[in-house]
Amino acid sequence: MSSILEDRYDLELSNAMDLYQNQTPIKDDGSEYFGWSDEDTSVSPVDESQFLDLTTPIFTPAAEVEISSTIPTGILNSDILPPIRAAATSSPPTTVQLPSTTQNAHEIPQSVDAAEAATSSDPATDPTTSPQVPELDIAGRVHKIFLENRVDETVTVTWEGLDNSSRPSAWVLQKIDEMFAAWLDVIDSKGKLVVKLRGCERSRSPPKWGWRTLVYPGPRSRDNQRFGAFVRILELAREAIKSDKIYTKRDIYYKDVALFGSQQTVDNLVDDIASALGVPRRTLHITAAAKGLVCGDLSIFKTDGSIINCNIEGEGVLIPSSTDIEKVEIRDSDTVLIIEKEVVADHNQDFVSLFTNHANQNKAIFRTLAESGDWKRLPGRPILICGKGYPDIATRELAHYLYLTKSLAGQYLDFYCLVDYDPHGLDIYTMYKNGCSVSRAAGLFYEQMAVPALRHLGVKFCDILEHFSAEGNGSNIKDSGSISTNNEEEPRSKRVRYAFSPPQGVLPMTAHDRAKAVSMLRRDHDTAVGAEHTDDLRKLLFVGYKAEIQVLGDQLVRYLGEKLGGQRIGLAS
Amino acid sequence: MSKQYLTAHTIDNAHESSIYALGVTADYTLTGSGSSVIKLHSTKDAAHPLVHTFTDAHKLGCHHIAASKTGKRAISAGFEGSLKIWDLENLEANGEIPEANKDGQIWAIALSADGSRCLTGSHNGRIKIWDLDKEPFLQLRDYETKNIFTLCVDLSADGKLAASGHENGGVYIFNNETGRMLHSLTGLMKPVRGISFSPSGKLLAVCGDFQVVAIYDVHSGEQVFNFTGHASWIFSIGWSETGQFLVTSSFDGKTKIWSMDSRTCVTTLGESNQPIFCASFLPKIGTGENLVTVGTAITYYREASGAGTG
Fold first, then answer.
1. ipTM of the modeled complex
2. Where is this region: Disordered (chain A) (predicted)?
3. Does B59 touch chain A (CB under 8 A)?
4. What mean pLDDT is reported for chain A?
5. Relative to the CA of B302, which of A131, A555, B45, B205 has its CA 20 to 30 Å away?
6. Is the Cβ pair A544, B210 closer than 8 Å?
7. Of 3.75.10.20, 2.60.120.260, 2.130.10.10, 3.40.50.1240, which CATH number belongs to B18-231?
8. Contact by Cβ (8 Å): A417, A452
9. pLDDT confidence of residue A187
C-alpha cells in the first residue's frame, strides 16, 4: 500500500513540478475534455466577490478552474499548486480555489442555483446532483473538501480490472456504493480522493494494461473536471441499475454537456470504468446507441417476445443490443458479409474529376445491396451486416452470435468482410475479427465479440492492380515470358485517356492516413493477428494510394459475386 | 535495336513479404522488405547465395536502401521513420539518424559515391545533407521546399548537386556548394517517385505516376526529351554505369530498359503483373548490362547477346 502511495506522490510531484516550472497552464488535451470557449476570460471581478462566500456544496462544473491570462499570477500559481506541495509547505491560503470558480462563464447560472439551494438547504434541487440519490449527495460532499483545507490524508479506491464478467449489475452497484461510502469518511477527515483504475490504455501503441489514476482535488484543473465526469458517470450508472433503465452513451453526454465536453470523454470513461471493474459495459446499464444494420434471411427473436424479420427489402434493420436478443434463427443463408459503410461519402471531388466532369454520386454500398435485393442473388445468399464505420458492441456481438450459430442446413456460416483499402478499413476489419482493435491479449470480453473465422474479401491491393489493367492497360501481360520482347508503343489515345482519368475511389494517402498506418504497424507488427494486414499497411505507405469500396463502382455486385463464388470454390477444393 | 534478356536467377522467398528496397554494390545485393531484417545476397556469384543478414534493422520494415558506388557503405530507411547506416566492409551497423518528429520523418534517401554524404527527404519536404564520416552526424545542408511529401532524392556523382521529387509533381535541383536552389522544374502534375542524375551529372531522369520518363538538362533546367511507353505508375529509375541505358520499373510489373542513343525502349521485362518496386543495373562485368529487380521476389536478369557465356 505504501509503495502505491509513493508512486502516486511521485507522479503528482512530477506533474506539479511541470506546472510550477512552466508558470503557465498546460492546455494539452484540456480542450478535448472540456471545450472551453473564449468567453471564459471575460468574467468581471464583481461576479467573483458575489460568490466568494459560497459555501454550498455544488459539484465540479462550478468548482472547475479555468486558468486564463486575465487571472493575476499570484492566484494562478497558488491555484495550480497541488495539495501535496501545499501540505508540505504548511497550509495553503484558504481562498485559493474560490476566485476562479466563477471564471467559467457558462457555469455561473448553475452556481446561482447552487447558492439558492444553500438557502433552502435542499441539495436535491442542485441540478448536478442526481435526484435519485439524495441520501448520498456525494457530489456535494466532494465539493466540500475542495473548499476546505486539505491534508495529505487520502483514500485510494482501486479497481484492478479482474475478470468479473459473470457478475450481475447488482455487484457493480455494490462496488459503486462501497466507493462512495469510503469517500464519505475521507470527506469528513479532509483527505483527498484517489481512484486507481486498471485497464487497457488504448492510446498507447501497442496498447497495454496500465493504471489510470484520478485524483480529487488534483494538481491540474482538468484533473478535477475528469474526476467530476467520472463521478457523474458512476452516478448515472448507479441510477440506471437501480431503476433498471438502460442509458446510451449519447444520453449520458447530453445529461451534462458542459461537464463532459465531448462524446469522446464519455466513451473513454465508460470504457475505462467497465474495463477496471472487469465487467462488460452493458452490466453498467450503459450501451451505445443502436447503429449497426443487418439484412438477410434471418429472424431475431427478442426477449420481449417480438420477432424482427430481417428479410425485408429496405434499408436493413437496426441491430438490437444482445441483451434484448433471445435467439437468432438463420434460414437459407450460409454466408455473412460484413460491409464497412452504409453510404459512401462523396469526397472524391478532386480537381481532375471536376475537370473531366465525372459524375460522383453517393454510392450506397450496403443500402444498394439491401434495397435492391441483390444480396439474394449473391452466392450463399449472404446475411449483410453493416457497422457504419467502427462497429458498436451490439453489431460485433451479433456477428459473434452468428459465428457460433449453425444455419438451417446445420453448417457454420462463412464470414467475409468488405472494407476500404486504407488504414481505417483494415483497422475495422481487425476489430470485427478480434472483437476489438487492440491486440487480442488486451481484452477480456472481446473474445465474445470476435469472429476469428472472418476473411478479408476486399478491397485488396490486387483490386487496384486489376482496376489499372482493366482501365488503362489492354495489353496482354502473360505472354512475355522470361524472354524479353521488343516494346511496341501502345496507342497514344489509350495512354492519354488513362493518364488523365484517375481511377474513381483511388485517393492519395493523407498525412493522417500515414500516421494511422504507422501507429497500426507499431501496434500489430509483432502480433499474430497483425501478420495479415501489416503487409497491406506497408504497401499503402509505399505506394501512397488508398482505395475506397467505390473503386468497384457499378461493378460491386459482379465483384461480390465473383469473389464470394471464388471463395466457395476455393473452400470446396 | 533491341536487347535480349534472360532470367538468370530468381530468389522467390528471400523475404516473407513484399520487397521494397534494393541497393547494389559489386559484392552485395541488399534488399529490404516488410520484415525487420536487411538481407545481403552475393552480386557476383551466379547462384546469388545469401551472404549476410542485418538483423533488427528496422522494426516495422524497410522501404528504401542506398549503397555507395565504392561499396563501402549503405544506408536504409524504415517505416518507423529512422535512417540506419551500414558498414559493408565489416558488415556491421554504423550508426543511425533517429526518427524525427512526425512531420520531419525521413522517407527518401540517397548516398554519395564515396558514401561520406547522405541526402534525406522527409514527409514535410525538407531536404537535408548529412556528413556520415563521424558521429554525431552533422547536418551540412537543410533545404526547405513547399512542405510536400518527398518521394525521392538523388545526389550527383561528384556530390555537388542534389535533386528531390515530391508528391505534387515538384522537382527541385539544389547546388550544394552554394546552398541555393538551382532549378524548380514544373510541369509534372503527379507524384514523382524516381529521380536520378546521369553518371556524368549532366542529365537528370525523372519518373513517376505520370507514366513518362522525363530527361532534363541539369544546367539549363530544360526538358530534353521524354520516354513514353509505361502504362502505370513508375516506381524506380536507374542509369547504367556508362549512362547509355536507363532502367525503370512500374506498378503493373513491367521493367523497361531505354537506350539514350536511339531514344527508344529496347526491352520490356515482366512475367507477372505484380508491382516491381525497384530495379537496378548491376556493376558491369564483361560486356552485358545485367540487372536485378525486386517486388515479390528478387530476380536477376542477364543480357543474352554479347554476354559471352551461354
1. 0.94
2. 86-134
3. yes
4. 66
5. B205
6. no
7. 2.130.10.10
8. no
9. 67
